[in-house]
Each structure stands twice: as structure tokens, then as C-alpha cells.
Amino acid sequence: MPEEDVKDQIRSLAEKMDSLEESVRMVSGPYSQLLEYLERFQKISSSYFRLIDLYQKYGEISPDLLMPGVKDHISREIVKILFERDGQNITQITDKLKERRGSSSRRIVRERLKMLEEKGIVTTKGSSRSKEYWLTERYVQKWYELLGLGAGKKEPEAKAPEGP
């Protein structure tokens, strides 16, 4: 008989331990979720303070910060245009540059794009007749890292449907 009492006590203890484990799991759930929220908040606030620091140091937060070797304003504007909408051809870039600067020529834009391509900032896709210019993945990744956003991928923009 005493052997059966011991077995019953062990079963009873095992059931109580299972019940206790379940209770701890239920109680700790919200705390672990709260911890996740706090970690996310810390990451966001860290990125925010990083942006403030960049703005304070340089007076603006712009892709220019990643191009210290590129001094001319036209090339810097071209990169900004491609950040706004990647995958444009020379005509689209030239037109956008004209809107911003008042004047622009396809020849100068083509020269600047070639220079940006040589520096690894821009890449081309398509044939020689319908060539589009894109920011390189490496350059976009550097931009995300500068902003403190970690590993992010810039997806090509989907064209919005035109309304009446």
C-alpha cells in the first residue's frame, strides 16, 4: 500500500506542476509581449534620435550624405529623383530635373548617370533603346543603415491607377 500512496502522491505532484506551469505561462504571456513592445519602441526611438543627430550635424537628412565624392548638384539631384521613384529613363529624369532646376539637358544627365554608375550608385536595366536607371541595392542598403532602419529593401514603386 505505501508504494501506491507514493505513486498517487507523485501523480498528484505532477498534475500540480503541470497546472503551475500553465499558470506561469498564462501570467508571463503579457509580460513577454510588453517586452517585445518595449524593444520595438527602443529601436524606433534610437532611430529617431539618430535622425535628429544627422540633421543637427548636416542641416538636412538627404541621400547626399552617402556621396561625399560627388560634388556637383546635378548628380545629387538625380540621386534624389531616383530615391523618389526608382526605375526612370533619361527623359523622365531630365524632365524632373528641369522642374527642379529650371534647365537641364539629356546630354548632361546622361554624363552624370554614367559617372554615378561608375561610382556604384546607379545601375541600368533594359536595352540600350529603353534603358532605365535604378539605385544600386548596395547604395539603398547604405541609406537604410545611415537612417538606422537596418536591413530594408526598396521595392520598385507600383504605378497608381489614373482616375477620372
Give a structural overview.
This protein is mainly α and 164 residues long. It folds into two domains: 1-61; 67-147, Winged helix-like DNA-binding domain superfamily/Winged helix DNA-binding domain (Arc Repressor Mutant, subunit A). It has five helices and two strands; from the N terminus they run ααααββα. It has a two-stranded antiparallel sheet with strand order 1-2. The longest helix has 57 residues, at 2-58. The radius of gyration is 29 Å and the shape is elongated.
Which superfamily, in CATH terms, is the homologous superfamily of the largest domain?
Winged helix-like DNA-binding domain superfamily/Winged helix DNA-binding domain
Identify the CATH architecture of the largest domain: Orthogonal Bundle
H-E string:
HHHHEEH
Q: Work out the strand percent.
A: under 5%
Count of beta strands: 2
Helical/strand content category: mainly alpha
Estimated radius of gyration: 29 Å
CATH class of the largest domain: Mainly Alpha
Question: Could you list the spans in which at least 5 consecutive residues all have pLDDT below 50?
Answer: 153-164
Could you say what the CATH topology of the largest domain is called? Arc Repressor Mutant, subunit A
The first-to-last residue Cα distance is 89 Å
Number of helices: 5
Q: Describe the sheet with the most strands.
A: 2 strands, antiparallel
Number of domains: 2
Q: What is the topology, as strand order, of the major beta sheet?
A: 1-2
User: Overall pLDDT, averaged?
Assistant: 82
Helix content: 55-70%
The coarse overall form would be elongated
